[in-house]
């Protein structure tokens, strides 16, 4: 049965939520999640003046803080961390809790490894980790989401080799990978710590692995007194290295960016050419629209074992072919004018039809991206939903990364009054946009 949940928008920067522990005491075709935005149609959501914008953001931050303080799930997570630590002999009393969010990508899906701009939001589905340095020289970590694996214990500097069979079927590849990558980047990780974690992020479409990696990385940096300046892009780069170089997942950096730079009340826009992050205001009345997710319940095996890797390979192959033909591009996202696009299709449509389909999606997705961001800024949620829907059709028919479970779920969603758009999220997931009442 599909699992449904609501998400508040623009929450959950990796570094934003930390607290002390009281001393009294988670990837291709058929992937798992589909999400949708719910919105009312009550006119513009933004104010024109900078003073108005500042006031709007202030009100939204106040509102979200009050929601978080009364969040029963937050309190349950903290209680779970304390209970698990006591059961497994881990000392977190007086330590710190770090919370990292998940993300919804609103465009361009699969754009990170294709050189396009990116836009997304953090959500209120999190990974919580309580941690405290120890004097054992050992890193000891327990995940309540993988209880059968018990406590993962290892000595800094002594982890299994990258991409080895030993790590392929265990969640421990994430703390191993973070420690390995930090050392590869010249960062000393010799101090041990105890940690317990729990999360409520679904297994597909919302970047559970990226959230976990960023949480672990910021924690290991802090424990070893090596914390980087806030917003340092090296965190994103190293988090991607964990996935690419240690685990073997051929992902881009979309997930890491959207989680690490998430800002309350804002959408995050990233330009890969300049590596600049900017923010797009979302509006005060967040109760009037929602991004929600439906989980198809299908099994996820990780991006490294799915169609995602095939699409990465196809796009890289096509770029190399076009470069040999004299096109001055570094990625398929560089094809932005219609004359160039039509010339490539005319030359390669017969010999490389699948590759041209991937390009077709990316070319028109970039046009939709600009239209969607402008509609978002203007508060035109109907247009955002329509753009969202058109993009979902492109991902299904041109990028071809959907599946029967997802398509069935989306077809049903379209029949619900108030649904104004639906689109897959993640490596092979589906999403939808709709009114709060839906």
TrEMBL record:
<dbReference type="GO" id="GO:0005524">
    <property type="term" value="F:ATP binding"/>
</dbReference>
<feature type="domain" description="GHMP kinase N-terminal">
    <location>
        <begin position="179"/>
        <end position="262"/>
    </location>
</feature>
<dbReference type="Pfam" id="PF00288">
    <property type="entry name" value="GHMP_kinases_N"/>
</dbReference>
<dbReference type="GO" id="GO:0004335">
    <property type="term" value="F:galactokinase activity"/>
</dbReference>
<dbReference type="InterPro" id="IPR020568">
    <property type="entry name" value="Ribosomal_Su5_D2-typ_SF"/>
</dbReference>
<dbReference type="InterPro" id="IPR036554">
    <property type="entry name" value="GHMP_kinase_C_sf"/>
</dbReference>
<dbReference type="InterPro" id="IPR014721">
    <property type="entry name" value="Ribsml_uS5_D2-typ_fold_subgr"/>
</dbReference>
<dbReference type="GO" id="GO:0006012">
    <property type="term" value="P:galactose metabolic process"/>
</dbReference>
<keyword id="KW-0547">Nucleotide-binding</keyword>
<comment type="similarity">
    <text>Belongs to the GHMP kinase family. GalK subfamily.</text>
</comment>
<dbReference type="InterPro" id="IPR006204">
    <property type="entry name" value="GHMP_kinase_N_dom"/>
</dbReference>
<protein>
    <submittedName>
        <fullName>GalK protein</fullName>
    </submittedName>
</protein>
<dbReference type="GO" id="GO:0005829">
    <property type="term" value="C:cytosol"/>
</dbReference>
<keyword id="KW-0067">ATP-binding</keyword>
């Amino acid at each position: 049965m599909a699992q449904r949940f609501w998400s508040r928008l623009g929450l959950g920067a990796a570094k934003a939520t930390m607290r002390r522990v009281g001393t009294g005491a988670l990837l291709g075709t058929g992937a798992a999640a589909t999400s949708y935005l719910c919105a009312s149609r009550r006119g513009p959501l933004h104010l024109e003046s900078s003073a108005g914008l500042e006031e709007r953001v202030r009100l939204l931050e106040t509102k979200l803080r009050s929601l978080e303080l009364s969040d029963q799930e937050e309190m349950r997570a903290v209680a779970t961390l304390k209970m698990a630590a006591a059961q497994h002999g881990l000392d977190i009393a007086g330590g710190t809790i770090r919370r990292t969010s998940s993300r919804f990508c609103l465009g361009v899906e699969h754009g990170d490894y294709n050189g396009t701009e990116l836009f997304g939001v953090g959500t209120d589905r999190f990974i919580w980790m309580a941690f405290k340095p120890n004097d054992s020289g050992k890193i000891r970590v327990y995940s309540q989401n993988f209880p059968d694996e018990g406590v993962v214990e290892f000595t800094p500097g002594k982890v299994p080799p990258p991409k080895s069979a030993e790590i392929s079927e265990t969640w421990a590849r994430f703390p191993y990978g973070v420690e390995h990558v930090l050392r590869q980047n010249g960062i000393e990780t010799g101090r041990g710590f105890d940690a317990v974690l729990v999360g409520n992020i679904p297994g597909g479409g919302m970047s559970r692995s990226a959230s976990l990696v960023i949480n672990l990385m910021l924690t290991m940096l802090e424990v070893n007194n090596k914390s980087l300046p806030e917003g340092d892009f090296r965190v994103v780069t190293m988090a991607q290295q964990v996935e690419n170089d240690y685990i073997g997942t051929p992902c881009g950096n979309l997930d890491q960016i959207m989680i690490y730079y998430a800002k309350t009340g804002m959408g995050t826009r990233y330009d890969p050419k300049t590596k600049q992050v900017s923010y797009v205001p979302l509006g005060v009345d967040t109760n009037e629209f929602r991004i929600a997710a439906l989980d198809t319940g299908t099994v996820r095996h990780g991006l490294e074992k799915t169609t995602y890797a095939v699409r990465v390979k196809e796009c890289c192959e096509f770029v190399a072919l076009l470069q040999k033909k004299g096109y001055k591009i570094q990625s398929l996202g560089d094809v932005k004018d219609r004359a160039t696009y039509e010339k490539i299709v005319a030359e390669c449509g017969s010999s490389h039809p699948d590759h041209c389909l991937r390009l077709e999606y990316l070319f028109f997705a970039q046009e939709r991206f600009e239209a969607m961001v402008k509609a978002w800024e203007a508060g035109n949620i109907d247009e955002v939903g329509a753009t969202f829907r058109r993009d979902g059709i492109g991902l299904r028919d041109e990028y071809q990364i959907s599946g029967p479970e997802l398509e069935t779920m989306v077809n049903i969603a379209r029949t619900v009054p108030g649904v104004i758009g639906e689109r897959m999220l993640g490596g092979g997931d589906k999403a939808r946009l709709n009114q709060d009442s839906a």
